[in-house]
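sanity check this fold:
=====
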Amino acid sequence: MSMYYHLPTLLELAAQSLVENETLAIAALEELPVDIFPPLFMVAYAERCREILKAMVQAWPFACLPLGALMRKQQPHQENFQAVLNGLDELLAQEVRPRRWKLQMLDLRLKTHQNYWTIWSGTRTGLCSLKEREDVQLMKTKANVDGSRMRAKQPLGRIEVLVDLHLKNGMYDQLLTSLIRKVKQKKGLLYLHCKKLSILPIPFQNIKRIMKVVQLDSLQELEVRGSWKLSTLGMFAPYLGQMSNLHRLLFSHNHTYPYTSLEEKKMYVNQFRSQLLNLPHLQELCFDSVSFVAGCLNHILRYLRCHLKILSVTNCLLLESDLIHLSQCPQISELKNLNLTRVNMTSIRAESLQALLERVSATLQHLSLSECGITDPQLTAILPVLSHCSQLMTFDFCGNPISMAMLKNLHQNPRLSKLCHMIYPAPLESYEDVPGTLQLGRLAQLHNTLKWMLHELGRPNMDGFGPNPCCHCGLSTFCELSP
């Protein structure tokens, strides 16, 4: 049995030797080749050599320092993080640039630049490729001036700090507190950019602190998950209106309390929807378990300035008027993904759903109508409209009480030529007399019948039973049909 060992490179050996003499390492930074900076920074981070880390930040010879990837690779030590912030502090306190200074971005995101710290092994290509990656627009160097005298005369520019934030109770930790304090202290020199912000249940005062230091126009994705009162939504609305580059917006589990009057609901919803006018790049809008959309969906969508690509309204109560107005909404005319999972359709006329699907038929690629209470008559009514969805690639309607005959009709539709993935419910014939109890043997037979039919139609891979809600607990359950 052969054993393989990692032999350290000359750069690694040099870096290890340097950290053993802190004074020498710091003094040598001005003359060291750039290739040694990443391995030296890694060793200094692992050994918690805070003075070396602080000095290296000030002499960092690349546009970006992807600290977040290293914090994920190792441990996010508070002492190391504070040393990096102190290095920035001293750097920004200087009136002119250090000779080798190129740092423009401190990237604290944990899931980007994953290969950076392992790619450096001796090749400049691996090191410098970072400049051309996803954040190039934020970290391009203005000019690559080699003359040290010219560079020494240039004033310091701003430094961006890029981070993805997930705010929840217990996560307002020391790292985030230190970062916010430093951004406040260096206002005008240190800018906090955040592409993805997720807000879970957390005191609104903490949210306000974050909103005041983050460059809100840098946000591209926002998720708000938690039982906010409508008044909290109203207080948050002005911050939402400043997120002018937002592409994705999700609200989840926001409920209207019983004591909220109709006038209050209208006022807070108006405060929210009016800010949508300031989101010209919004492509994806999602509501999950949100009570305030019932009867208001049309009023919300008409404030959008752009055409949505993705609309998801799940686990929500929608009125028939919502579907009617939605089918007339110009903002969904280019929709590619429509998700209405667990929107109860039992009291909604098939004509309203027909009109909605007709509206998006030219562009729709993904459709989910799972657990909507759709029956054979409703599916029969919308089947001709589904045939017009020539771009449809995936269709999920599991958890609906549909018969085997209806499933056959759907599978035999010749117009859905691009449909390659369908998740459908166990047909009604696979249940026993006891409600909700599946006859697995019968289900397997019906499954094989559908598979054979799809094979005959030249679609052997377009097949799949989805989960069915249990009649006792309502949770989704899967059936294993393999022998």
About this structure: The first strand starts at residue 64 and ends at 65. Residues 9 and 121 are 8 Å apart (CA to CA). The radius of gyration is 28 Å. Residues 440-456 form the longest helix (17 residues).
